[in-house]
Amino acid sequence: MSPIQNSKGIIIPDQHSAPNVAYTTVIFVSSQTMSKFVSIFFRLKSNTNFADSLRRTSLRNLNVRNLMHNRYSVSFPLLCPHRCSSTTASIQDQTIDFPGGAVEFIPDMRFISESPKARIPCYRVLDDNGQPILGHNFVQISKEVAVKMYTNMVTLRSMDTIFYEAQRQGRISFYVTAIGEEAINVASAAALAVDDVVFPQYREAGVLLWRGFTLQEFANQLFSNKYDNGKGRQMPAHYGSNKHNYFTVASTIATQISHAVGAAYSLKMDKKDACAVTYFGDGGSSEGDFHAALNFAAVTEAPVIFICRNNGWAISTPISDQFRSDGVVAKGQAYGVRSIRVDGNDALAIYSAIQTARQMAVTEERPILIEALTYRVGHHTTSDDSTKYRPANEIEWWRVVRDPVARFRKWIEKNGWWNDTAESELIRNLRQQLLHTIQVAESVEKPSLADAFSDVYDVPPSNLREQEQWLKEIVTKQPQEYPANIYV
């Protein structure tokens, strides 16, 4: 039978209840009787026979009728002639209203699994042959935008090929290619607005290309001539353009991620209809900047899009040696950031995901994390030989089977927007333009030596002025040691 409540407001067990069933005594007491109750409780607790002492007290004489004015709930295990073998907590209050939402209490001890049973799926529109997959959905794209996306992808690959060869010829000192990652570059840029502020890593030249940075401007930076926006003070392939809202590339890994969050927070405070966008590789997600940035963005609800190019290799370290989580996308939910995994070699999927992410980031004022699965077909930089740490047949398979440029070309050809004649003409014109830009960039004189000491201090300190004078004297005395197109 069920326990009943007597006239004193005390829950008592029925005599026929099973002896191993535990109940809880609940007495509502007033503030005037609270001190008396506590005194009795601790006095009885010190006695040898707690149960017998409890029965001898005058608790049953407490005036219960007047206790509803100042209600206190006091619970302790009910002690009766039928001693219980165990005591079970009340099923009341099964949640705690903790910051962030109610947390449910459960009696079972459950550890969260270190990995889910199924991996997070990857959003895709086109298969490897450029055909839309069954049940596909994507943001519609016009012919003009699609053709521009494709021509920019081809331009980026041609630029990488020719500038890479120029470095191998000793004409420039360093270069970084984006071969195999053209879709992430160009499709993401196409989905953004010109007012969105970009914080690149060093493999996003395609974003700058889409925004109108010319081939000659690329060449000027690579050859560090006087028309270089960085005045020759940056490594080659470390582009930057204030005009195009593209922050200058820095070699330090992942620092741009936290910078992007700060910029996004500023855009939010200024009520701008724009967001910040930052790119980084899987290796960047292993840096502390990544974790701090995601947490800060989530807490401040900053309109920022994190785009991770997970190409499987952080220089020479495979992702299996970096983390045991389900890639990078799983980390977004841990920090309270809305996230999605996308096929990074599918231009339509990238375009759709980025455009949708931007809409959410700006209108809802929230951060978004996108993990784009891709593969770096080229070497990490011209200072790297990737065949030393990964098999050549793996590289070749991704280059042929998963090529993002070829896949997108098949789709636009199917739509009747491209053909072999247009392809041949594009390749021929690009080669002529690129070779011409190299010749021009090489012939332009280097920046003035004074530019190496400017733009840091409003008024240069004395030690900096002394260094500038010393350098000029060295160049004047030993001109044979310096390029002829450097002027003092």
Strand order of the largest sheet: 7-8-9-13-12
Low-confidence stretches: 1-31, 53-91
Number of helices: 14
Q: Assign an overall shape.
A: globular
Helix-strand pattern = EEEHHEEEHHEHHHEHEEEHEHEHHHH
Helix content percent band = 25-40%
* Number of strand segments: 13
EC number: 1.2.4.4
Family: Belongs to the BCKDHA family.
Cofactor: thiamine diphosphate
GO molecular function: branched-chain 2-oxo acid dehydrogenase activity; metal ion binding
List the helices and strands and how they pair.
Elements: E1 4-5, E2 11-12, E3 24-29, H1 31-45, H2 50-56, E4 72-77, E5 95-98, E6 101-104, H3 143-168, H4 182-191, E7 197-199, H5 205-210, H6 215-222, H7 255-269, E8 276-281, H8 288-300, E9 304-310, E10 313-314, E11 317-318, H9 329-334, E12 338-343, H10 347-363, E13 368-373, H11 392-401, H12 404-414, H13 420-443, H14 462-477
Parallel strand pairs: 7-8, 8-9, 9-13, 12-13
Antiparallel strand pairs: 1-2, 3-4, 5-6, 10-11
Helix pairs in contact: 3-4, 3-12, 3-13, 4-10, 6-13, 7-8
Domain Dehydrogenase E1 component: 151-447
Pfam family, one: E1_dh
InterPro entries: Alpha-ketoacid_DH_E1_comp (IPR050771), DH_E1 (IPR001017), THDP-binding (IPR029061)
